[in-house]
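Researcher: Final request for today, and then I'll write up notes for the group meeting. The sequence and the SMILES for guanosine-5'-triphosphate follow.
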Amino acid sequence: MRCVFVLGTAGSGKSLLAHRLHQYYNNQGVFPALLNLDPGAESLPYAPDIDVRDHVDVVSVMRRYELGPNGGLVMANDMTAARLDEIQGEIDAVNPDYLVVDTPGQVELFAYRSSGPYLASGMSADTKAAVFLFDGAMMGSASNYISVSLLAASIRLRVGLPCVNVLSKSDIAAAPPDRILGWASDAAAALEEAAAEAPGRMYSLISAIAAGMDEEYPQEIIPVSSATGDGMADLEAALSRILNMGEEVED
Ligand SMILES: Nc1nc2c(ncn2[C@@H]2O[C@H](COP(=O)(O)OP(=O)(O)OP(=O)(O)O)[C@@H](O)[C@H]2O)c(=O)[nH]1
Ligand SMILES: [Mg+2]
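Model: Predicted protein-guanosine-5'-triphosphate complex:
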């Protein structure tokens, strides 16, 4: 089994992309399954094969421990990790070729507490990869791009999986996708634009950040639209390079 975790900031398009990936693999004639790891999801654009909400109920957690919505989600995420054995049993019973994992809306709950890295490393699969979504609707400026790149690097560090960067919602991106790809391929150009947007005293901070990110450049970022399907084949090929070491999708 190959396993793909879909990560990204709140509302960046994780759930819809997870659905599209599942459809894509299905159309390729392999057997995919969808795991929802977001206990706070009220509605999903797909019917999950395995659903953490069958194990952890945020509203009951809030009531039982007298927590607000954020405290409830924190605890629900931690409780998810404690249910790994049961969730793994359900995955094994389905036994897909590809498991697509939709993660909690608040990426910081997944990545920065111990539950996400624990689930990412503890789940049993032959190979694993992550997709990190740069929310196209937020990519209107070079400084936004650099900020989200930092978040992506930090999350990669925490989750510890090889990662494919995706520009999500490419059909409604806040800047032309070619311009965003320019920021990804050329650190100096991104820095220049970001510095021009930033107040003077931010310049040295932005310079230091860009210098530190030099190792990360050029970044590969794949524009994908879950609305039109554009870019799905490129995303699958990038995932395949990690999951199947370059082979096409296979069962
Ligand atoms: N136009 C367009 N809209 C999209 C695309 N992907 C997602 N959306 C819309 O963006 C909104 C959020 O999408 P979701 O898939 O729920 O995003 P998410 O990251 O799972 O959201 P949370 O789990 O709530 O953090 C929905 O209204 C989607 O229909 C896309 O590629 N193009
Ligand atoms: Mg979601």
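Model: The chain has one domain: 2-243. Residues 8, 10-16, 38, 105, 168-169, 171-172, 225-227 surround guanosine-5'-triphosphate (ligand 1) (CB under 6 Å).
Researcher: Thanks, that's everything.
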